[in-house]
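Support case: user asked for a sample of complex input and structure output to validate their parser. Sending the pair below.
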Amino acid sequence: MAQTNIKQKIHPSDSELADMLSGVVPAEKRKIIEEHIASCEECLNTIVSACESVGSAGIKTTHKRGTIMKKINIYLILCLISFALSFAFPRYFIQFLVATLLLGIKWIVDAKSTRMLVMIYEAWKHGGEKEASRILESMDSGSKNRRW
Amino acid sequence: MAYAIVSYMGGPNFPDDSILIQSCISRDLTAWALFTKKYSHLINISIKNRLAKYGFGTSGHDIEDIKQDVLVSIWNERKLESLKNHSSLQYWLSIVSGNAALEHMRRLRREPASSARSIYENIGGSELHELIPSRHDNANDVLSTKEFSEKLEAEINSLPVRDRLIIKLHILHSKGYADIADMLGLPMGTISSSVKRTKDKWKEIFKDFLQ
């Protein structure tokens, strides 16, 4: 499993398979790897086994988590700081309050659940109730099917 | 680099993988000790998991031997240098450990405790009832017939690449939509519509085949 060439009959290398699972391979290369594993039981078993093992080991992926935390909390943190500063500097109370409001709105708009609601609303607007139900169903089955 | 590692040692967390890998590549023994400590559990699980998939019975002694082989080969053969994306370390390590486990068993000429089952025997009963409009009480009886197995295999192989991969992961490896989406980096809607499309197609095909 250590070759680097990814033609149909030659197995992708370990690092290529790992990169595919991490989502860091370019689209073109991903397509070639997918073509291979779709017909190679050995490689399919390899990636399934790797995903299960990494899931069971439950090692913290500090890098990814750090980025997500930054995305989620940065506006909330700035919003709270601005709110606190409005009391610390009464002279600029209104300015800080406006900044708090704007940052708060930005935090709400950026939140995942809000984006999900917008997505459902857009689907409902363009595809009707059927499209919206499809999105809801896929979200529902996703949460039910999460096993690793 | 060694300083970066040592500075992390007192903290509750292990250093970032990228720093750890770079330090190991620079032959920093402290970093290597941290690496082995951090990933020992993952290596153990990967070995057990991969061997179980191939029907090998394992003892704690075997697993420890294989783990030592894995770690020695990573260090001596400087395998970490071949890892271009450090964010893939966990998957890479799991794959390397699994492969080493199979290689170890081959070297010892061990046979699986239970003979390896056909992959089609792994399909769950509930999925089959959904899939096959069978007149048989037990859909597995149908699946065991050679003719049906061949037909199913041919149908799987005739699917477009992405649909084939998705249906194999869903039905043969019992993976949920969210897991497949994570694995292939696709939206969950794409996975669910692909599975639905294939199941609808198969319902028609196998209806004619069975009646």
